[in-house]
Amino acid sequence: MSPHSRSLLQIHFCVVLWGFTAILGKLISLPAATLVWWRVVLVTGALLLVARFWKGVRGLSSRLFWIYAGIGVVVALHWLTFYGSVKLANASVAATCMALIPVFVAFIEPWVAKRPFDARELVFGFAVIPGVALVVGGTPGGMRLGIAVGALSALLAGVFGSLNKRFIGESDALTVTGIEMGAGAIVMSLVVPLMLPAAVWMTLPDSRDATYLVLLALGCTLLPFALSLVALRHLSAFTTALAVNMEPVYAIVLAILLLGEQRELDPAFYLGVAIILAVVFGHSLLQRWGLPRSTTVV
Fold this sequence. Notes:
Layout lengths: L2 H25 L4 H17 L2 H8 L3 H27 L2 H7 L3 H13 L5 H9 L1 H9 L6 H24 L5 H23 L2 H4 L5 H25 L5 H8 L2 H13 L7 H22 L10
């Protein structure tokens, strides 16, 4: 199996695991800010116990260390807005907003990577917009703020995805994950007390929430985050972003089975999801056929 094919399998496995994040976010009763704080703290704590992490840190230049730390801040803000969208709307809507990531990446990655814009990426990026519009039209008016917050989360995901692609290089994936999660934990430790009363954020989660938090941190964060960094060595940020568009499918199916969210959404929502899927598979087919990168449109 070629490195590219193996990386595609790895990123799709990551997306399956990420499909559970919105569901767990809905099941966990904590506010979004507290949820994200526990998520990054648990992942950071686990990695601090791994000798490989410390060995990787010692081998990094100070420049790369601070770059990864900065990316970690963006990751934390992405999760904060993502779970804010889950709480303001629902799991299906928040996950579907992530379909906007390729639109943002099509503009962000060329700028970050200092390469020309690719017309084909722009076309596929914009092709998801009708699907997203139908998703918005198929949701109750009370969820629109959740959609706006979800769109902001997609923008932040496009930023940190492009930055990770630019700077991952040969750095150890667990080391990069630990630095980024650690920076996110520090930032959230400063932000959470400003967002919530002490009586709320200082309260320990009950056993149910604690179980879900451990599943979220280790099974749906640490494993797929590190694995996706490895896959990025052989995939563009845009290809990765399109693959991530499968996340709404898994999240919606799980939300229907576990949360009964189909009662909250109109048929237009699911038509929008179908359009998004068509874009994902269309891009994958073009890559399989080996079509060359299209004319740039700088």
